[in-house]
């Protein structure tokens, strides 16, 4: 029986895109499955005696066609373009 872990994921956004880094030690690139929708992404990856699995919802809608992913030294780096830039109103703090 393989153990299943939720991998550590670090998510930030700036300049119209999300920058995501996911820790996947002990995994080969060909054993990673990544699926992205407008609302988030899901990841499954297999190691020798374990697997990683997780889904994450994103606060802003993204463009699934504007994605770059790279796996190196146990880290999966994903850059996803936002569908629409988030609009906010600056609040004065007194």
Which labels suit this protein?
Immunoglobulin-like, four-stranded mixed sheet, 94 residues, mainly beta, four-stranded antiparallel sheet
Number of separate domains? 1
Shape: elongated
Strand fraction equals: over 45%
Helix content: under 10%
Order of helices and strands: EEEEEEEE
Distance between the termini: 57 Å
Kindly describe this structure.
The protein is mainly beta and 94 residues long. It has a single domain (3-82), classed as Immunoglobulin-like (Sandwich). Helices cover 0% and strands 59% of the residues. It contains no helices and 8 strands. A hairpin with a 2-residue loop joins strand 7 and strand 8.
Break the fold down into its secondary structure elements and pairings:
Blueprint: E1 3-5, E2 9-14, E3 17-23, E4 32-36, E5 40-46, E6 50-57, E7 62-72, E8 75-82
């Amino acid at each position: 029986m393989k153990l299943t872990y939720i991998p550590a994921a670090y998510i930030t956004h700036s300049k119209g895109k999300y920058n995501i880094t996911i820790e996947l030690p002990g995994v080969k690139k060909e054993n990673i499955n990544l699926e992205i929708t407008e609302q988030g992404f899901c990841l499954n990856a297999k190691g020798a005696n374990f697997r990683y699995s997780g889904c994450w919802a994103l606060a802003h809608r993204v463009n699934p066609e504007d994605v770059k992913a790279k796996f190196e030294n146990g880290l999966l780096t994903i850059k996803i373009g936002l569908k629409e830039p988030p609009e906010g109103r600056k609040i004065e703090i007194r």
